[in-house]
Write a structure and sequence with these properties.
This protein is of the alpha+beta class. It is built from 10 helices and 11 strands. It folds into 2 domains: 117 residues, no CATH class; 172 residues, Gcn5-related N-acetyltransferase (GNAT) (Aminopeptidase, 3-Layer(aba) Sandwich).
Amino acid sequence: MRSPPPVQGRCPQPPGKSRLAVRARALRVGSAVSDSGIIERIDVFCDAVPRERARAEAIGALVLFVPMGTGFPYYARPRTGQRPAATAADVRAVRARQRELLIPESFEWVERTAPDMAAAAAEAGLTVHAHPLLVLGSLAPAPRLPERIGVRIMSPEDPDLILAWAVPGVAFNYPGTAIGEASVTERDKIAAGHDAATIELLRDRLRSRESVLATASGPNGPLASGSYQLADGTAEITGIGVLPASRRRGLAASVTRALAAHAVASGARTVFLSATDATVARIYTRLGFREIGTAMIAEPPADGSLLYSVCLSSLCPARLTWARRAGVRPDRAEHSRVR
């Protein structure tokens, strides 16, 4: 299946996607490939997509993505291809540059493609987190939804778009899968404080099909949401969040399944995501995902004012605004890894 046709009037394909397209052809996208080949696709995707809206600065063995114009801060990561081993000095140099630019000191990478990075990050004073990296095999049937709950892909003009955007801001402020009290009241507070420019950027990404947003909604509006980003046959699902009061009802699985199905129908041949931990990963394996590797994140040690929660990935810029609104680290949230 092919990707949807470009939106009329859309700008020419950005350099990041062109770079990914070249590597996708080299990897013979659409044919059976080894796990190593899939890992390479994912690694190239994570390096290429930020280049759509950011300038790449090489610093030693690492590359830092610096936002250009309106947008969200990205992370730093090891350079692709042949490179020297990452060192603590490289990490410190990048952190200094991030502080100079007033962007989060965030690093992300795939463990198998950069096994040297974890030790360098730790030596440079960062806390390193490891998370299961999963890829879609055969998509399982859609799980049964609770009564009066429906799942849909959202259009840019959907009247509930802002409410769906606000859901992860609540969800990531209460990490884990436990049922809690936070619900639509907290969601509506975040939605009421939205920034118009942020929402317009989200609408723009949805119109251009850079991102796709899905929600599980009931009579009181969105209760869960998440998104994916697709580029040249590879899609990453990110930012799956459920209001604590609506947890353990299968909503995260339903949203994830809807996004995966839409990505495949839109031409994705590799669909991947990162899970918080093994417990959450089991939710995704029941949908047809399988663990293929480890996604790594490094960041400064959290203090009492910071909350670590996972919207893993290379493609979640919108996670930043949700995080700011919810009071969590701006580099740890999205309306689809908006990475």
